[in-house]
Amino acid sequence: MPAGTRAIAISLDRLSKTYPVSFLRLKKLLRRKFKPPVEALRDISFTINEGEIFGLIGPNGAGKTTLTKIIATLVQPTSGNAIVKGHDTVAEDQDVRRDVGLSAAEERSFYWRLTAEQNLLFFARLHGLNGRVAKNRIAELLEMMELSELADRRFAELSTGNKQRLSVARALLGTPPVLLLDEPTRSLDPIAAARMRSLIKSLAQTNNATIFLTSHNLTEVEELCDRVAIIGKGQIRALDTPQNLRATHTEEERVTILFSGLSVIDAEQALARSFKPDLFVFEQASRPDELSVRFTREADNELLDRVLRNLQQSGAIVRSVESEKATLLDVLERYEQQSGELSSLS
Questions:
Q1: Is 180 helix (H, G, I), strand (E, B) or coil?
Q2: What is the Cα 32 distance to its own chain's centre?
Q3: 33's torsion region: left (phi>0), alpha (psi -120 to 50) or beta?
């Protein structure tokens, strides 16, 4: 269903959050130094549609976790409001909690001495699941997360990746219509991460779940998300589809030409007649008779046509031409440079 015809699952309206100075009056009385209040979020407004996978990216300290916690009712905003499935996160927090499943990147709320299954059973009861219904749901989720063999393993003994998968399983216990996933593939091996991404897609497509996720894996965000918001210093810098963000905020593209029929020396000399030599990078291709040349050009200028014409006139046989637009990392770095932020992406 087109995004414009879907109902709104999450609505944020002029949302701000400032963390005050702890024990301010006491510190002033004792004449202790203190840092100013921290403005974590400033005037955040956007909506997320039902069944949409919505990504939030930005450097550490940009406000991603605070925003996620406000939607999950764990933190109250200083001003503005957040509405989830028609319920205010402050005035109707219990209704919101019934509709939201949260998986945090740094999970501290599990009971470390209990097994994986016992932990899920405890949280299932908080969701109103008891008896055989709870047992069946837990068995289903453990199998879905490939944790069945670790059901009797104490939480403290699980690897970081398996703890992350258990956190996602817990978020799914009550089959919530809204999922908040904070770095869902953090610490997972490549195969497990790919399966997690497949699960996230399936939940949105099959169950019509609304998924709000944060991630430092920008390739993952591009693959999964219908729309992406870039946040920096507590403000939304941009919001659009990954494709539009790349297309709108880039002035360059990287081009690779695969060719045969010329040696590296001949190709360099051919291009040096018309261009600066440091513009190009030559590499040996997988086949011994083929070479590749890489360069960067401004989008839609005539450099590519001129390079192709020059190579062909010198006897080269062009095998393929590939161009690569800016990635989300390029877009994010540009916004960070504009706002003077230092990137903390890993």
A1: strand
A2: 40
A3: beta
The tokens describing 105, both together, are 């990147």
* Cα–Cα distance measured from residue 127 to residue 184, given in angstroms and rounded to the nearest whole number: 21
Please name the helix (run of DSSP H) or strand (run of DSSP E) that holds residue 239, with its range, or none: strand 235-240
**In degrees rounded to 5, what are phi and psi of residue 109?**
-100, 5
Burial environment of residue 195 by CB neighbours within 10 A (0 to 12, 13 to 18, 19 or more): middle
Looking at the chain, the whole-number percentage of residues with pLDDT higher than 70 is 92
Whether the CB-CB separation of 224 and 197 falls below 8 Å is answered with yes
CATH of 253-324, one of 2.40.50.180, 3.30.70.100, 3.30.70.270, 3.90.1150.30: 3.30.70.100
Contact 168, 184 (CB under 8 A): yes
Could you tell me if 242 and 330 are in contact, meaning their C-beta atoms sit under 8 angstroms apart?
no
CA neighbor of 77 nearest in space, from 37, 39, 49: 39
Q: Write the pLDDT tens digit of every residue in 284-300.
A: 998 889 999 999 887 66
* CATH T-level assignment (fold) for domain 3-248: Rossmann fold (3.40.50)
Q: Helices H, strands E: what count in the chain?
A: 12, 14
Could you tell me the pTM of the whole model? 0.75
Q: What is the mean pLDDT of residues 93-109?
A: 88
SS3 at position 145: coil
Listed by start position, the domains of the chain span 3-248, 253-324
